[in-house]
Design a protein that fits this description.
Layout: H1 23-43, H2 50-56, H3 61-67, H4 71-87, H5 90-94, H6 99-116, H7 118-127, H8 133-159, H9 169-181, H10 183-186, H11 194-203
Helix pairs in contact: 1-2, 1-4, 1-7, 2-3, 4-7, 4-8, 6-8, 6-9, 6-11, 8-9
Protein backbone atom coordinates (compact mmCIF):
# COMPACT_ATOMS: atom_id res chain seq x y z
CA UNK A 1 0.00 0.00 0.00
CA UNK A 2 1.47 3.32 -1.07
CA UNK A 3 1.74 6.05 1.43
CA UNK A 4 0.12 9.28 0.38
CA UNK A 5 2.60 12.06 -0.14
CA UNK A 6 2.45 14.49 2.68
CA UNK A 7 2.24 18.13 1.77
CA UNK A 8 3.47 20.92 3.98
CA UNK A 9 0.68 23.20 5.05
CA UNK A 10 0.63 26.43 3.14
CA UNK A 11 1.73 29.46 5.07
CA UNK A 12 -0.76 32.23 5.10
CA UNK A 13 0.49 35.34 3.50
CA UNK A 14 0.23 38.23 5.83
CA UNK A 15 0.91 41.88 5.31
CA UNK A 16 4.59 42.69 5.29
CA UNK A 17 5.65 44.44 8.43
CA UNK A 18 7.10 47.88 8.07
CA UNK A 19 10.62 47.89 9.46
CA UNK A 20 11.43 51.50 8.62
CA UNK A 21 11.03 53.84 11.60
CA UNK A 22 8.35 56.48 11.27
CA UNK A 23 9.09 60.15 10.70
CA UNK A 24 7.84 60.86 14.22
CA UNK A 25 10.21 58.28 15.69
CA UNK A 26 13.19 59.72 13.81
CA UNK A 27 12.26 63.26 14.82
CA UNK A 28 12.08 62.31 18.49
CA UNK A 29 15.37 60.44 18.31
CA UNK A 30 17.08 63.39 16.63
CA UNK A 31 15.79 65.66 19.40
CA UNK A 32 17.34 63.33 21.97
CA UNK A 33 20.67 63.40 20.12
CA UNK A 34 20.61 67.21 19.95
CA UNK A 35 19.95 67.61 23.66
CA UNK A 36 22.43 64.90 24.64
CA UNK A 37 25.17 66.48 22.53
CA UNK A 38 24.58 69.85 24.20
CA UNK A 39 24.69 68.24 27.66
CA UNK A 40 27.81 66.21 26.88
CA UNK A 41 29.48 69.39 25.70
CA UNK A 42 28.46 71.27 28.83
CA UNK A 43 28.98 68.58 31.48
CA UNK A 44 31.14 66.00 29.74
CA UNK A 45 30.13 62.42 29.05
CA UNK A 46 30.74 61.39 32.64
CA UNK A 47 28.85 64.33 34.11
CA UNK A 48 25.69 64.10 32.02
CA UNK A 49 23.10 61.38 32.54
CA UNK A 50 20.09 59.91 30.79
CA UNK A 51 18.01 61.55 33.52
CA UNK A 52 19.42 64.94 32.45
CA UNK A 53 18.46 64.26 28.84
CA UNK A 54 14.96 63.17 29.84
CA UNK A 55 14.50 66.23 32.04
CA UNK A 56 15.55 68.65 29.28
CA UNK A 57 13.03 67.08 26.90
CA UNK A 58 10.28 66.71 29.50
CA UNK A 59 10.32 62.95 28.90
CA UNK A 60 10.47 60.03 31.26
CA UNK A 61 13.73 58.11 31.51
CA UNK A 62 11.91 55.06 30.11
CA UNK A 63 10.89 57.04 27.03
CA UNK A 64 14.48 58.01 26.30
CA UNK A 65 15.51 54.36 26.62
CA UNK A 66 12.79 53.44 24.12
CA UNK A 67 14.68 55.44 21.50
CA UNK A 68 18.25 54.93 22.73
CA UNK A 69 19.19 51.67 24.51
CA UNK A 70 22.07 53.09 26.57
CA UNK A 71 24.20 56.13 27.26
CA UNK A 72 27.12 54.46 25.47
CA UNK A 73 25.02 54.00 22.34
CA UNK A 74 23.87 57.61 22.63
CA UNK A 75 27.45 58.85 22.52
CA UNK A 76 28.23 56.51 19.62
CA UNK A 77 25.25 57.84 17.65
CA UNK A 78 26.33 61.44 18.22
CA UNK A 79 29.89 60.68 17.12
CA UNK A 80 28.62 58.78 14.08
CA UNK A 81 26.35 61.67 13.19
CA UNK A 82 29.36 64.01 13.17
CA UNK A 83 31.31 61.74 10.82
CA UNK A 84 28.26 61.22 8.61
CA UNK A 85 27.91 64.99 8.30
CA UNK A 86 31.60 65.26 7.42
CA UNK A 87 31.44 62.48 4.81
CA UNK A 88 28.43 63.98 3.03
CA UNK A 89 29.29 65.35 -0.43
CA UNK A 90 32.80 63.86 -0.26
CA UNK A 91 32.16 61.48 -3.17
CA UNK A 92 31.06 64.36 -5.39
CA UNK A 93 34.02 66.55 -4.40
CA UNK A 94 36.39 63.64 -5.00
CA UNK A 95 35.36 63.61 -8.67
CA UNK A 96 36.54 67.20 -9.31
CA UNK A 97 39.38 66.80 -11.83
CA UNK A 98 41.41 69.92 -11.01
CA UNK A 99 43.52 69.15 -7.89
CA UNK A 100 43.56 72.71 -6.50
CA UNK A 101 39.83 73.18 -6.97
CA UNK A 102 39.22 69.80 -5.35
CA UNK A 103 41.39 70.61 -2.34
CA UNK A 104 39.72 74.00 -1.93
CA UNK A 105 36.27 72.43 -2.05
CA UNK A 106 37.32 69.90 0.59
CA UNK A 107 38.51 72.72 2.83
CA UNK A 108 35.30 74.67 2.22
CA UNK A 109 33.21 71.60 3.04
CA UNK A 110 35.17 70.96 6.22
CA UNK A 111 34.93 74.54 7.47
CA UNK A 112 31.22 75.01 6.77
CA UNK A 113 30.30 71.59 8.14
CA UNK A 114 31.97 72.27 11.49
CA UNK A 115 30.78 75.89 11.65
CA UNK A 116 27.19 74.74 11.13
CA UNK A 117 27.26 72.51 14.22
CA UNK A 118 30.31 73.29 16.38
CA UNK A 119 28.62 71.77 19.45
CA UNK A 120 28.31 68.44 17.63
CA UNK A 121 31.99 68.36 16.72
CA UNK A 122 32.94 69.48 20.20
CA UNK A 123 31.44 66.23 21.49
CA UNK A 124 33.01 64.27 18.65
CA UNK A 125 36.54 65.48 19.31
CA UNK A 126 36.46 65.87 23.10
CA UNK A 127 34.22 62.99 24.21
CA UNK A 128 34.90 60.17 21.74
CA UNK A 129 37.60 58.85 24.07
CA UNK A 130 34.73 57.46 26.17
CA UNK A 131 33.35 55.35 23.33
CA UNK A 132 33.28 51.59 23.75
CA UNK A 133 35.96 49.92 21.64
CA UNK A 134 33.49 48.36 19.19
CA UNK A 135 32.08 51.80 18.37
CA UNK A 136 35.52 53.40 18.33
CA UNK A 137 36.76 51.06 15.62
CA UNK A 138 33.76 51.82 13.39
CA UNK A 139 34.44 55.50 13.86
CA UNK A 140 38.13 55.12 13.07
CA UNK A 141 37.19 53.42 9.81
CA UNK A 142 35.13 56.44 8.76
CA UNK A 143 37.87 58.82 9.86
CA UNK A 144 40.38 56.95 7.70
CA UNK A 145 38.04 57.21 4.71
CA UNK A 146 37.66 60.92 5.30
CA UNK A 147 41.38 61.61 5.65
CA UNK A 148 42.18 59.52 2.58
CA UNK A 149 40.26 61.95 0.36
CA UNK A 150 42.38 64.83 1.67
CA UNK A 151 45.60 62.85 1.22
CA UNK A 152 44.69 62.11 -2.40
CA UNK A 153 43.92 65.77 -3.06
CA UNK A 154 47.17 67.01 -1.50
CA UNK A 155 49.17 64.40 -3.44
CA UNK A 156 47.52 65.47 -6.68
CA UNK A 157 48.45 69.09 -5.94
CA UNK A 158 52.05 68.09 -5.27
CA UNK A 159 52.22 65.94 -8.42
CA UNK A 160 50.97 68.80 -10.60
CA UNK A 161 53.22 71.40 -9.02
CA UNK A 162 50.42 73.29 -7.27
CA UNK A 163 52.10 72.52 -3.94
CA UNK A 164 55.87 72.27 -3.32
CA UNK A 165 57.38 68.79 -3.77
CA UNK A 166 58.63 68.84 -0.18
CA UNK A 167 55.03 68.62 1.08
CA UNK A 168 54.30 65.08 2.25
CA UNK A 169 50.67 64.29 1.27
CA UNK A 170 49.85 62.57 4.55
CA UNK A 171 51.32 65.29 6.73
CA UNK A 172 49.81 67.97 4.52
CA UNK A 173 46.37 66.39 4.83
CA UNK A 174 46.70 66.13 8.61
CA UNK A 175 47.79 69.78 8.77
CA UNK A 176 44.77 70.97 6.77
CA UNK A 177 42.24 68.81 8.60
CA UNK A 178 43.74 69.71 11.97
CA UNK A 179 43.78 73.44 11.23
CA UNK A 180 40.17 73.51 10.08
CA UNK A 181 38.89 71.09 12.72
CA UNK A 182 40.08 73.36 15.52
CA UNK A 183 37.28 75.71 14.49
CA UNK A 184 34.96 73.91 16.92
CA UNK A 185 37.05 75.14 19.87
CA UNK A 186 36.88 78.86 19.31
CA UNK A 187 34.23 79.66 16.72
CA UNK A 188 31.30 81.78 17.92
CA UNK A 189 28.81 82.73 15.18
CA UNK A 190 27.87 86.04 16.81
CA UNK A 191 31.53 87.08 17.00
CA UNK A 192 33.48 85.34 14.24
CA UNK A 193 33.24 85.51 10.45
CA UNK A 194 33.48 81.97 9.10
CA UNK A 195 33.88 83.25 5.53
CA UNK A 196 36.99 85.21 6.46
CA UNK A 197 38.42 82.17 8.22
CA UNK A 198 37.74 80.10 5.12
CA UNK A 199 39.48 82.67 2.90
CA UNK A 200 42.53 82.53 5.16
CA UNK A 201 42.61 78.73 4.88
CA UNK A 202 42.17 78.77 1.10
CA UNK A 203 44.94 81.34 0.69
CA UNK A 204 47.39 78.81 2.13
CA UNK A 205 46.85 76.42 -0.79
CA UNK A 206 46.60 78.94 -3.60
CA UNK A 207 49.10 78.55 -6.39
CA UNK A 208 51.79 81.21 -6.25
Amino acid sequence: MELAAQQEPRKKRGRRRHTEPSAYYLERREAILDVAAALFREKGFGGASIEDVASELDMSKATVYYYIPSKAVLLAMIADRAMTRALEKMAKIREIPDPVTRLKELIRHQVYTIAAEPWLFNVFFDQKQYLDEKYRERLRSKERRYLKVFIEAVKACVDTGALPPRVDPRYGAHAIVGMTSWLYKWYQPERDDVDQFLEACLALVEKR
